[in-house]
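Box 3.1 — From sequence to structure: Aminotransferase class I/II-fold pyridoxal phosphate-dependent enzyme
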Amino acid sequence: MPKTHGGDIYNNEVKLDFSVNINPLGMPDTVKGAIAKAITHCDQYPDPTCAKLKQTLAQEFAVKRYDVSERDILLGNGASELFMAIVHAIRPRRAVIPAPSFSGYEYAMQAVDGEIAYCLLAEAEGFDPDFCQERLVAMLTAETDILFLANPNNPTGKLMSEVNVHHLLDHCREQGIFVVMDECFIDFCADAESALRWVKKYENLMVVQAFTKIYAIPGLRLGYLVCGNKSLREKIARNLPEWNVSVIAQEAGATAARARAYVTRTQKYVQRQRAFLEAALTDFGFRVCESSANFILFYTELPLYKMLLKKKILIRDCSNYEGLTQGYYRIAVKREEENRQLLKMIGECIENN
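Predicted structure (token representation):
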């Protein structure tokens, strides 16, 4: 199977899409208003510096007591554009990636003909990255140029412990290895600590986050990178296109970044619905990977992807993830009525098998 993401609604007839992991509460009303207002400015070029959006992000970081200024921030047309700009700036010959994980890192490395070494996470250890710490450190030698980490990881939903993140950052700094910390799903995790508070301490650290998932705006394409290393940041910036963030995306982002109550409400809702889904999937006899994010990885011998697609429900077939095999699937946590409908359809698949 080719390395494709979820959301293939263009080649399938889909009524319920559980394959993409966006906020089940939908786009905030304030963001919808900002988008409508921004449409009237589409006859203008966007601000190439994204000054308003950077200022808003820096203000929100200050509220969270992160030592991040406007100059530490780069904006991108989604996190994927930033990953590509990073590898073109650094030109890494060798990357280490825990697996399974987001295929976008591999896609970016292929653009610069880089070698990839995978540190395989074990299902017997719950795909927990903390259990592979020693193996991961052993792979991070001076021959490695860059480490890609997702926290929480995709597709497992696992968070790394703060102690182990610190240890990896210290080790990579000693070995001269760049670290890309992908935190695109961290806002769904109420108790998670962002690596944003360490960007001034580690000059080799780049933290990437996105508006796509938490604010349910994947069609707008908006992400950001924070790096305290001026020289590195400028190299990455030179590998981004001019005017890469549209007028609409900038206005939507500046409004979304202030939606604190919406994020808190999302975290509570996702936590309840995730627990409900995990319990139900376990009752079905599936092997469920306990998650901290807004999605769940599980295993079943049923050909569930094909069975549910016949019912016009799309889930993520994870057999094309490095380190996973046929039978692994991922579902997003959606609204309660949608989650119940999915479980009802899965029950029918089991009965008719």
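Summary of the box: The longest helix spans residues 260-283.
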